[in-house]
Design goal:
single chain; 477 residues; alpha/beta; six-stranded mixed β-sheet; five-stranded mixed β-sheet; elongated; Tyrosine--tRNA ligase; EC 6.1.1.1; nucleotide-binding; RNA-binding; protein biosynthesis
Length: 477
């Protein structure tokens, strides 16, 4: 009997090639896909590159990448494999995001020096369902972002199908141990398994390697075989630590195709790994103050998401523009050159933050994040719109919506005290006396000063600031 997460995923599971629509993406039209992926930094290793190049040019392929259900949402560390899938899709190939509903119960030893803590099965089930929604949301928005690039480029726009998300629990749950040993185990050579780097490293460690983790590569290898046979999948994409698991899958496909445990032919499938992504300081990409940067705005606010990319170093910004945006090469080159001429303006970072935020949170998210950034951190309020400010700060206690008559008829000092910017009227007056109270970044000159219509931003917004950090944003209704 299928589990709840498996049943959830089978409702719309079909081969991505069944809904294939070839899209000519003119931004990349003159650049072969593998060349563009290499230019952008997506490729660490690839099996039989010449044969893969020929396969990609001959007909549409299907490509998959897996996600462990260790959390209920995607984080920006998942952007690298999923942006790789997106590049395949906008070139007309089918994509399969795969969640490890089964393999997540075992735990992948790749890249780890110790064994994973055994996961709670109920938690995995819940994570599979939530991750499915997270992945569907990501690709829905990413495809909207890609369509806009097509429209901007003047290319013919064809519908891009939001991919189905699969869980490998759908097929692994049907296996008994005896069936798995007979149908899969007989095709695998133990000496080959022992030679995998992830296995050798753990065997040489003090803790060693459990039999459960040792067999993980068989489970993932069977995933590739199953997707190859039943979904026409010919390419697996994974991180550099997945190279051994990908090779195991290719070997299993080859052995099934020859029906022999003693010999294996070149399989009609390919593997591609992405590099381990670190910042210029050597830190793992995707962490902010030690915490993951999530794609779910309930876990990481859109503002904080935008700020993460706005704060990237000059050494990293070109790399991230290539990886996490669909900007064409010429635009990236021009942005980097402009940035290098005046790095203090952080032009490249602003573009990066806006593009990635639009990719993940749509254009409305960009407007919200840029509005908050301008309101909180910048001295130039030119271009701020009252409705954008009001929308961006909705639910924030620092936002107060007032009748225009109260705004212009009440001394600024009293507004600051009444709505919590300072503790009292006397505190406001003392702050004004020390030239520490600001209205729209101009010093409030005296205690009885009132807001003038001409000083309002967009005719409706007054931003009061006490010292460097405390803000009160007043918007006329």
């Amino acid at each position: 009997m299928l589990s709840s997460s498996a049943r959830y995923l089978t409702r719309a599971c079909f081969s991505p090639l069944q809904c294939h629509k070839l899209v000519k993406y003119r931004l990349f039209h003159d650049v072969p896909l593998l060349d563009d992926l290499a230019y952008r930094g997506f490729i660490q290793d690839v099996t039989r590159p010449d044969a893969l190049r020929q396969a990609l040019q001959s007909k549409p392929q299907a490509v998959y990448s897996g996600v462990d259900p260790t959390a209920p949402s995607l984080h920006i560390g998942h952007l690298l494999p999923f942006m790789t899938l997106l590049h395949f899709q906008i070139r007309g190939h089918g994509i399969i995001p795969l969640i490890g509903g089964a393999t997540g119960r075992v735990g992948d030893p790749s890249g780890r020096s110790t064994e994973r803590t055994q996961a709670d099965i109920q938690q995995i089930e819940e994570n599979v369902i939530k991750l499915t929604e997270s992945i569907q949301s990501f690709f829905g928005r990413a495809l909207d972002y890609a369509q806009k690039k097509l429209e901007t480029d003047g290319s013919p726009v064809l519908p891009l199908q939001n991919p189905s998300v699969l869980s490998n629990l759908v097929w692994h749950e049907k296996f008994s141990m005896l069936d798995f040993l007979r149908d899969v185990g007989k095709h695998v050579r133990v000496n080959t398994m022992l030679n995998r780097e992830s296995v050798r490293a753990r065997l040489e460690s003090q803790q060693g390697l459990s039999f459960t983790e040792f067999t993980y590569q068989l489970l993932q290898a069977y995933d590739f075989y199953y997707l190859h046979k039943y979904h026409g999948c010919s390419i697996q994409v994974g991180g550099s630590d997945q190279w051994g698991n990908i090779l195991a899958g290719l070997e299993l496909i080859g052995r099934y195709e020859t029906h022999s445990a003693a010999a294996v032919v070149e399989p009609s499938a390919f593997g591609l790994t992405t590099p381990l992504l670190t910042t210029s300081t050597g830190e793992k990409f995707g962490k902010s103050a030690g915490n993951a940067v999530w794609l779910d705005p309930k876990l990481t606010s859109i503002f904080d998401f935008y700020q993460y990319f706005l704060k990237v170093t000059d050494d990293d910004v070109e790399k991230y523009l290539k990886l996490f945006t669909l900007l064409p090469r010429a635009t990236i080159t021009e942005l980097v050159q402009t940035h290098q001429a005046a790095p203090e303006k952080r032009i490249a970072q602003r573009w990066l933050a806006a593009e990635v935020t639009e990719l993940v949170h749509k254009r409305d998210g960009v407007i919200r994040a840029e509005t908050l950034t301008k309101t909180f951190f910048e001295s130039d309020y030119e271009g701020l719109k009252a409705e954008n400010v009001k929308s961006a700060l909705e639910g924030d206690p620092r936002l107060v919506v007032l009748d225009p008559r109260e705004i212009q008829g009440t001394p600024v000092a009293k507004l600051a005290a009444k709505y919590g910017l300072v503790a009292s009227n006397s505190a406001a007056k003392n702050l004004i006396a020390s030239r520490g109270l600001y209205l729209n970044n101009q010093v409030v000159p005296e205690a009885q000063y009132t807001v003038q219509n001409s000083s309002l931003i967009d005719g409706r917004v007054a931003i009061l600031r006490a010292g460097k950090g405390k803000l009160l944003v007043i918007v006329a209704n």
